[in-house]
Design a protein that fits this description.
38% helix; single chain; 511 residues; Ornithine Decarboxylase, Chain A, domain 4; Aspartate Aminotransferase, domain 1; 15 helices
């Protein structure tokens, strides 16, 4: 393959060449194969000249090396089932079954799934709450060092940076603490593919979702490897286990095209991105009620975070009488703008370098109009006082739910960074609970029982309880209250029952 010929170009040329496919896929590139047939002409399998992702030696090897050069890691792997596959492989390869790992409690559920499959004993770092925005703070490097000294058998540390809301941690500082103790650092940077390795500098394994913030098809991601702490042979084995043996050439061509696009237009696009973000900031800086999350405000509170991704526009409606869902509904129904997500006290807009000037302008104008409406309603008496009081109370209660989820209410001193007492007691590993005999009980009857499933509010998706953790009355009451307020609780049956372990005393493993 010519070095300047993309995987997509090679697929197009092959489709036009007239070779008849006596092989998979079953659509046979036949234009009569239904309404999706137009996409099938470049959908092939591992035929001669098109390499094999799990033993890449030709065209796919070159494509991965091109991505590697762009990001500057020592080695880069294509992922065809999103960051989830890369996280599973990275975490599973970082320690042997039954060993210990340390993870930030706000990690993606795939981290927990990997720990479950390997029967890891898990220790947690609990991020603080940035109270002005009701979101998780970054990870404190010194606290990671302290926890590793407290748990010297830990083999690997897993953190998320940037977070879903865009909060960046001091990964270099964390890496120094981790590597000083000869441990492996894994960074879930799924939301930071547009930031390159800057967001994961110094880490051994970094996972990027190309599709989240760059022009690449959904389900495409990269896994980067640096240093020799991570066993690359084990990593390759796990990648082969958790990824399809028939990877989509459409997805892989999309990744290669994304990398080539970045090589050609990346700098110009990012310059435009920064310019539009600054213009947006200037247009919205005089908002009177709605607030846009800014690192300058966070840093004044001496948070652990070291930056805020400019592509994550956190729109806080705290103390406005609105909830994040009401904001998202109004933006959708009135202004035809769909947010990335809505939480209790904020909405989140995800902006990338592919957004247009018109898109940035529409978002800014809509927020200014909503802010004007709030001002008129509060100052001009157009909203009845009783109605406003109800809205304020609902918003405040929603904020309290967020605070409870993140378990960082009024913490001081050492516990402010690691609120271990707020994480339910673990009496079994994730795997032990998952594989134990289970039963469903009513939520109100589960106090003192051991959870057999993950229980979390979504958003933000941080576990309130994980398999193997003892459920407390306080936690169950908080879950019930959240349900009454209309929040989505994952881990409960439609009838409001919860899965717990059928406990046999001699088989309860206390940590």
């Amino acid at each position: 393959m010519s070095a300047d010929r993309s995987l997509y170009q090679a697929l197009r040329e092959y489709a036009a060449g007239g070779v008849y496919p006596c092989h998979m896929p079953g659509h046979k590139r036949n234009p009569a194969a239904g309404e999706m047939a137009a996409f099938f002409d470049i959908d092939i399998t591992e035929i001669e000249g098109f390499d094999n992702l799990h033993h890449a030696e030709g065209i796919l090897k070159e494509a991965q090396e091109r991505a590697n050069r762009l990001y500057g890691a020592e080695e880069t792997f294509f992922l065809v089932n999103g960051s989830t596959g890369g996280i599973l492989a990275a975490v599973m390869a970082a320690a042997r079954p039954g060993e210990e790992i340390l993870i930030a409690r706000n990690c993606h559920r795939s981290v927990y799934h990997a720990a479950l499959m390997q029967n890891f004993k898990v220790h947690y770092y609990q991020p603080k709450l940035i109270e002005e925005y009701d979101i998780c703070d970054g990870v404190n490097a010194e606290e990671i060092g302290r926890l590793l000294d407290e748990h010297p058998a830990v083999k690997a540390v897993v953190i998320t940076s940037p977070t879903y809301e865009g909060i960046l941690s001091d990964v270099a500082g964390i890496a120094a603490e981790v590597h000083a103790r000869d441990k492996i650092l894994i960074v879930d940077a799924a939301h930071g593919a547009h930031l390159g390795l800057l967001a994961g500098i110094g880490a051994d394994l970094v996972i990027h979702s190309l599709h989240k913030t760059l022009p690449s098809p959904t389900q495409t991601a990269l896994l980067h490897v640096n240093g020799r702490r991570a066993d690359r042979d084990r990593l390759r084995c796990y990648l082969a286990m958790v990824q399809s043996s028939s990877p989509s050439y459409i997805l892989m061509a999309g990744m290669d095209a994304c990398v080539r696009f970045l090589e050609k237009e990346g700098q110009e696009r990012f310059a435009f991105f920064r310019e539009q973000r600054e213009m947006f900031h200037q247009k919205t800086k005089n908002l009177r009620h709605i607030r846009i999350g800014e690192m300058t405000e966070v840093s004044q509170k001496k948070a652990a975070s070291v930056g805020w991704d400019i592509g994550k526009i956190l729109i806080s409606v705290k103390d406005t009488g609105m909830t994040g869902k009401q904001l998202a509904d109004e933006l959708r129904d009135v202004y035809q703008i769909e947010l990335e997500m809505a939480a209790a006290t904020y909405g989140l807009a995800l902006m990338t370098f592919m957004d247009t000037a018109e898109g940035w302008q529409r978002l800014a104008d809509a927020l200014l109009r909503i802010d004007d409406r709030i001002e008129k309603e509060r100052g001009g008496g157009q909203m009845r006082q009783a109605t406003r009081n109800v809205a304020d109370r609902l918003q405040q209660e929603s904020g309290a739910v967020n605070a409870a989820v993140l378990r960082s209410e009024s913490k001081t001193g050492k516990d402010a960074a690691y609120a271990a007492a707020d994480i339910p007691e673990a009496v079994m590993t994730l795997a032990q609970a998952f594989h134990s005999e289970q039963e469903e009980v009513l939520l109100q009857e589960a106090a003192g029982r051991v959870s057999a499933d993950f229980i979390n509010l979504y958003p933000p998706g941080i576990p309130l309880a994980a398999p193997g953790e003892r459920l407390t009355r306080e936690l169950l009451d908080g879950i019930a209250e959240s349900m009454r307020k209309g929040f989505t609780v994952q881990g409960l049956s439609p009838a409001g029952r919860i899965r717990v372990v059928v406990e046999i005393p001699e088989k309860i493993w206390h940590y």
